[in-house]
Fold these 2 entries.
Entry 1:
Amino acid sequence: MSEYEIETVDGPQAADREAAPPPVVAVVGRPNVGKSTLVNRILGRREAVVEDVPGVTRDRVAYEANWSGRRFTVVDTGGWLPDASGLAAAIAEQARLAVDLADVVMFVVDATVGATDVDEAVVDILRRSGKPVVLVANKVDDAATEADAAMLWSLGIGEPHPVSALHGRGSGDLLDAVLDALPAEPPPETFAAAGGPRRVALLGRPNVGKSSLLNQLAGEKRAVVDSVAGTTRDPVDELIELGGREWRFIDTAGIRRRYRENQGADFYATLRTQSALERAEVAVVLIDASEPLAEQDLRIVSMVIESGRALVIAYNKWDLLDEERRHYLEREIDRQLHNARWAPRVNISARTGRHVDRLVPALDTALEGWGTRVPTSKLNQFFADLVAAHPHPIRGGKQPRVLFATQAGVRPPKFVLFTTGFLEEGYRRFIERRLREEFGFAGTPIDITMRIRE
Ligand code: GDP
Ligand code: GDP
């Protein structure tokens, strides 16, 4: 145990920390009906989610939205592009995907064009799913076009909501309809009460060995499968006993299920990673040690850091490495994973079981760092010493100082520094490094913000 106060799951702040993940609203429709414009409208910003370059998969696909105080996640399926098998098939696949992961589907039709055969095919899929659907009649820029919207009653999935995603007309009413369709908000305690075992997301690009590790970990004691209460999605988790305790591995159904290698697979993987992270406390990012570090590995690590979850890095397929590669890898890791040097690392073989038992201590370390709270008195002593020994460089005749600091939160640790001026990037990195040296925080991102008093 650390000497510092550590908040645990059933600690005093558990209720507000353990809020259930927000429901998911997926936006579906043919290309050019205005899905991205609508998503921008919902997010209340002008910045372009809209891609100029067709054929480019958007990096981010899920966004946090808020309407009338209700939080939800909007998924822009427009980022998932039709492949060679043709538009109709691609849109159908997109609809299935949306239905799979969403609580509510917003189906966007261009009212000025009317319902096409492809739209009809999508309606079939949506109707069979039983998921609530909000029909959006887009490009109704003025009253004259309202009649076009009414024509869409013919699709047989309820009331068309006339809207101009571009100008905002009707978007408030539309969002009210979306809120009505969302599942009832679960009471905040539900999730906390369900959250006894620590929640682990097993992440990594395809073929790094996620399923193999899962099988290795589950072993004989395999698989108490259960679905999470309080959501209408049924992500299937597994409870696995490790080191004498139960751990909840998030969305193991998604890991075990095999997806076709197509353009959508990448998109789907990103989405799944994001939604697994939402529900997890700690992520194990699996990396194939027998191959060079890939862009996608780094991206997944960055996603974990951005999500504020604890992180363990597991180098898998260690059995395939020769001495030279092991040696090389150490240097490669330090260079390429420099933004996650603080993460505990384990070198394992999911195939042979080598050092798989080291995962639990690494998870414990990461979760401990994630939940560590430094008492204000200790923190300010630390800053007094730090500022005295290593003052901020003088800039333009001024020398910003840290007056006072407080830890505003845990999971991950968040610090607020009250300063007399802007602390430059290098100095903030120095502060982070020193905080880590002094107080641990292994396996957790830490968040530092400044309040400047001029
Ligand atoms: P997506 O492919 O479904 O994501 O469609 P986009 O959001 O990229 O929009 C396609 C085109 O339709 C763009 O040129 C938009 O400016 C335009 N558009 C989107 N919404 C509206 C609208 O409400 N009214 C009008 N007139 N044009 C719109
Ligand atoms: P996933 O796509 O991340 O779930 O990866 P899988 O668990 O399906 O593994 C992909 C391939 O890598 C399979 O052929 C596994 O047998 C192999 N594999 C997984 N872990 C190891 C390991 O530790 N050593 C070796 N040599 N092969 C492994």
Entry 2:
Amino acid sequence: MADVKSVGVIGGGQMGSGIAQLAAVAGIGVWLVDLDSEALKRATQSITNSVQRFVSKGQISREVATNALKNLKCTSNLEDLQSADVIIEAIVESEDVKKKLFSELDRIAKPSAILASNTSSISITRIASATSRPCQVIGMHFMNPPPIMKLVEIVRGADTSNETFMTVKTMAERFGKIIVCSQDYPGFIVNRILIPMINEAFFTLYTGVATREDIDTGMKLGTNQPMGPLELADFIGLDVCLSIIKVLHVGLGDSKYRPCPLLVQYVDAGRLGRKRGIGVYTYG
Ligand code: NAD
């Protein structure tokens, strides 16, 4: 099992920035990579604000926060990841785009490096097939927002080695996370169950059973969840929810996973949720 001293995180959006923060706070040197320099600026700001909140709540010391910000470096150049021990990908939820990136990472990363994906639903075995090191490819599925949520779902592809699994498990525990393990089937554990519920909430709205507020209040108070499913969909991103339900539909071949037309229409209209200021709800 390798000792992880340097991590690369690709994608500085809501997930990648949170994952980079976890590694930096754990005392690991991090390169955060995004093609979009504005995304890197937003990520740096959000990480700075978030570690300051942890300090003011007494959850980390000022010294840990200062060192975390020193541990973090941003770049748009993938070649900067040459010496990373583990690279965690958190870019758009598209199999083709992820495979292209993994094939590039396979060329750039040192031979011992582990390549992990934060994919919500795409097959790790298929992503690994784009590399010459499938035994060093693994799923590391953080929950949103990564600095707060306790769980990391670890997904083993068909060829993932025990050594890769143990290195990633130990790193997740160093981040303060609790892990669960899933076999490599569509949606893994959490999204296999969560996303059909969100899709069903859209059908409930689409067929006029109830208002969005009553659907959310019903599920919040009726099943003791902190957020209703439509509110949660806006938080996750409606585009991300749609990609995942499509993966379940194709991968499991059951019509019960067909995407709700209302979810499709919102995504077509650019109503992607909180990140765009509008989804099921509108945000100020
Ligand atoms: P996001 O849209 O907030 O961020 C994606 C970032 O990746 C953007 O900043 C974009 O500029 C960058 N990017 C895209 N292609 C790139 C490339 N080739 N190289 C470098 N940067 C690139 O997305 P997100 O919500 O952070 O989701 C990222 C991944 O995490 C997806 O696979 C998603 O399924 C997964 N995930 C999302 C959630 C969630 O709740 N949103 C939860 C768990 C996992």
